[in-house]
Amino acid sequence: MKIGILGTGSVGRTIGTAFIEKGHEVMLGSRSTTNEKAMSWVEANGVHARHGSFRETVEFAELICICLNGAFAVDVLQQAGPSNFIDKIVVDVTNPLDFSNGMPPSLLSQYSNTWSLGEEIQQQLPGAKVVKALNTVTANLMVNAQLVNNAHHHLFICGNDVAAKNAVRELLAHNFHWKPEYILDFGSIQSARLTEGIVPFWVGAMQVLGTPMFNYLIVK
């Protein structure tokens, strides 16, 4: 599969590398085609890795992962061109975090309680099939669920398109060891308000535990 990653930070590079290791072709997208992080990543990952502008990356990809700073996500989507996302699955990994008052962060005011970044992304990309996923775990765990409790822990997804959510569930299970029965579908993209809302708590827990290598397990 041709996969586009929007963002050259640690999350985007980690996901991109993991997909390449599973045999996919990956393009890392940034504002500049001479982005040093992207160029170094391509050099390290061989013939199935490439980089380009945000627009080039979306045009290239069959599936897109948004791995951006939440404050800048909407601007990037406009640069990439919303029409280029039509009929494509978009995995939204972003979180609308505000670190301006220190740790743990709060949510950016425009994306809290009654609106979420996931909803905003779906609104910005009306022709795309946005699935909120992976935003509640650290990058290394995103791409290998077995690193914690032998993959017996929960991942939360939501989105308006059931077929797209099922495709993402299968992709994560096949490539990254997530157990399908532990991937909880919270319903429509409106539930991104819930999955984004627990991330400040996650950061606080990381501080207390001294490690990001943990996750939620819901028992009943």
Care to describe what's here?
By secondary structure, the chain is of the alpha/beta class. The chain has one domain (2-209): Rossmann fold (3-Layer(aba) Sandwich), CATH 3.40.50.720. Helices cover 37% and strands 18% of the residues. The strands form two sheets. An eight-stranded mixed sheet has the order 3-2-1-4-5-8-9-10, sandwiched between helices. It has a two-stranded antiparallel sheet with strand order 6-7. α1 links the parallel β1 and β2 (25-30). α3 crosses α4. The model has no long low-confidence stretch (mean pLDDT 96).
* Residues in helix, %: 25-40%
Global structural class? alpha/beta
Q: In this structure, how is the largest beta sheet organized?
A: 8 strands, mixed
Encode the helix/strand succession as letters: EHEHEHEHEEEHEHEHEHH
Low-confidence residue ranges: none
Number of strands: 10
| Biggest sheet: strand arrangement | 3-2-1-4-5-8-9-10
Question: Span between N and C termini?
Answer: 37 Å
Number of domains: 1
Based on Cα principal axes, name the global outline: globular
CATH class descriptor name: Alpha Beta
Assembly type of the chains comes to single chain
Secondary-structure arrangement, i.e. CATH architecture: 3-Layer(aba) Sandwich
Tell me the CATH superfamily. NAD(P)-binding Rossmann-like Domain
Count up the helices.
9
Write the CATH fold name: Rossmann fold
